[in-house]
Write a structure and sequence with these properties.
The complex is a heterodimer of chains A (98) and B (428). Helices cover 21% and strands 17% of the residues of chain A. Chain A has 98 residues and is of the alpha+beta class.
Chain lengths: 98, 428
């Protein structure tokens, strides 16, 4: 392989190890509040691209690939992120390099 | 875990990163009973940094530690790469004496490996490491923090130390720190890319076990930020840090910047053939001393490390882990000293030189806030450097004309450059 792979975010997340909490999401959004947000900064700043706007205009979030960086919490000014914490003990991303 | 007061420990340290581990290590050495609580399944499994550690701070924890540490490579080459479009200009500095004889001034580390080793050292010293435990809240009684709650259970301690990182849930819960602003941080992403050790040594022109640290300017599409490239034993850490405030609504993303950086002609040959092992993200405090809260303690509670804002981004170097170690040591010294915790902590931070170090470089914030640093100066530097090597059939233009042409081409009036230069001079 002489070239350098350009990877999509799902490809990148696929290189990581996760223990996904299937019971509880550590981050929760209120789509009704997000609907009132003009900027939706979460969508561009999340390095795992976990925030998206569905075709019907509703903001969605998937906690499974979260890198636990905390950027979304900081840029959310409208208050659509109604819960932000870390995953329960031993759940979430498990960095093998770090 | 139990709520019974007689089973309380002297100190609970939350977060097994450099600050928390250094604190637990020193407390255990001082004969205190310490529980080091970590939410990851092992120390280091939640921790991310660019990857360079200054060894003096590890030696400050205990002499001899640095030599035992599982570092990746000793940094013998410091580089700054300025990029614009397809072009790049690299300044490479090699050689020079080590600050401590026999020990490299700085080394690259991968946190999963390093932090696990370091936490093991704290355990050897007598601290109890409890992994896989996420602290949900603090227990408060009569205005004093007396313990933590985790998974429905309670654990009590004389002092709770919050070393829980940049998003510090506990320091916010205790009311010591407010919400971080999007202007006060950078969002960093990093790929760890596997490469053979001999390939790394050839490409970076270093010897066996030696490596390079490269910081980059001009790879963030005009957004406040930069890139980094550190060599590990058999991988490199390549990353981009950019202001979330600058990214918001700009249509640019930090992960796209990283992918573009991988393909840049100045970087691509260095990582060609590599295989990405992992993708990580982390917030980097960029508010320096201004970001350190006015109060660092409450009764029975203390905040340290990145949670307390002890991080310095100077553009040409980023210091997080060494300041975390120093602050963790200071936290332990303050707890051992007893009496007024805030007073003892401030005194210990003063003794370690941490406060003075952070105050000394306050002016850098002003320099790094100049938007032209990310938008126009990389282009200007490349134009000027390029003009030196321009050879053709025409008569060479005088240097003065070339400078003027480069300034014009980059939309930089001379007075703006002079004013920014003054900010730069003042900041150093």
């Amino acid at each position: 392989m002489s070239t350098v792979e350009r990877l999509t975010v799902p490809d990148l997340l696929g290189r990581n190890t996760y223990e996904v909490d299937e019971v509880e999401a550590h981050i929760a959004i209120d789509a009704a509040v997000c609907a009132t947000c003009a900027e939706k900064p979460c969508i561009s700043v999340c390095p795992a691209q976990l925030y998206a706007v569905a075709p019907d205009g509703v903001v969605t979030f998937d906690h499974a690939g979260c890198l636990e960086c905390g950027t979304c919490r900081i840029v959310c000014v409208t208050g659509g992120i109604v819960r932000w914490t870390y995953p329960r003990g031993s759940y979430g991303v498990r960095y093998r390099q770090g | 875990m139990t709520g019974a007061a007689e089973d309380a420990v002297d100190v609970i340290v939350v977060g097994a990163g450099p600050a928390g581990i250094a604190c637990a290590f020193r407390l255990a050495r001082a004969g205190r009973t310490v529980v080091l609580v970590e939410r990851g399944t092992s120390a280091g499994s939640k921790n991310v940094s660019g990857g360079r550690l200054y060894t003096y701070a590890l030696e400050a924890v205990e002499a001899g530690l640095a030599a035992q540490a599982p570092w990746e490579r000793s940094v013998v080459r410091e580089q700054v790469m300025v990029m614009d479009g397809e072009r790049s200009l690299t300044v490479s500095l090699a050689g020079g004496p080590a600050s401590t004889p026999g020990l490299p001034t700085s080394v690259t580390v991968l946190r999963a490996r390093f932090d696990e080793w370091f936490a093991g050292k704290a355990e050897e010293a007598g601290a109890l490491l409890a992994t896989g435990i996420m602290v949900d809240s603090l227990i408060e009684e009569g205005g004093r923090i007396v313990g933590i709650r985790a998974g429905g259970e309670e654990m009590r301690a004389g002092v709770v130390v919050a070393a829980d990182g940049v998003s510090s849930v506990l320091a916010r819960a205790a009311g010591l720190v407010g919400e971080l602003s999007a202007e006060a941080v950078g969002v960093g992403v990093k790929e760890v890319i596997a490469l053979d050790a001999s390939v790394i040594e050839d490409r970076f022109a270093v010897g066996q076990g030696e490596g390079a640290a490269t910081l980059m300017l001009g790879c963030t599409d005009g957004v406040h930020g930069g890139g980094f490239l550190y060599t590990n034993a058999a991988s490199v850490s390549l990353g981009v840090v950019a202001s979330p405030a600058g990214l918001s609504g700009s249509g640019r993303t930090v992960h796209e910047m990283l992918q573009a950086l991988k393909g840049h002609p100045g970087v691509r040959p260095l990582i060609a053939g590599g295989h990405t092992l992992e993708y990580a993200a982390h917030l980097v405090r960029e508010d320096g001393w201004r970001g350190v809260p006015r109060r660092l303690t409450r009764e029975g509670f203390l905040v340290t490390g990145e949670a307390a804002g002890f991080v310095l981004n100077l553009g040409y170097t980023v210091r997080g882990m060494d300041l975390a170690l120093l602050s963790g040591i200071a936290a332990a010294e303050a707890i051992v000293a007893g009496g007024d915790l805030e007073h003892a902590y401030r005194a210990a931070l003063g003794r370690s030189g941490l406060s003075a170090t952070m105050r000394a470089v306050r002016g850098y914030d002003d320099l790094l806030q100049i938007p032209r640093l990310y938008r126009m100066y990389p282009g200007l530097a490349l134009d000027l450097a390029g003009s030196i090597f321009e050879v053709g059939p025409e008569v060479p233009r005088p240097v003065r004309r070339r400078v003027h042409a480069a300034l014009r081409a980059n939309h930089l009036p001379l007075r703006t450059v002079l004013r920014d230069g003054l900010v730069g001079v003042r900041s150093v």
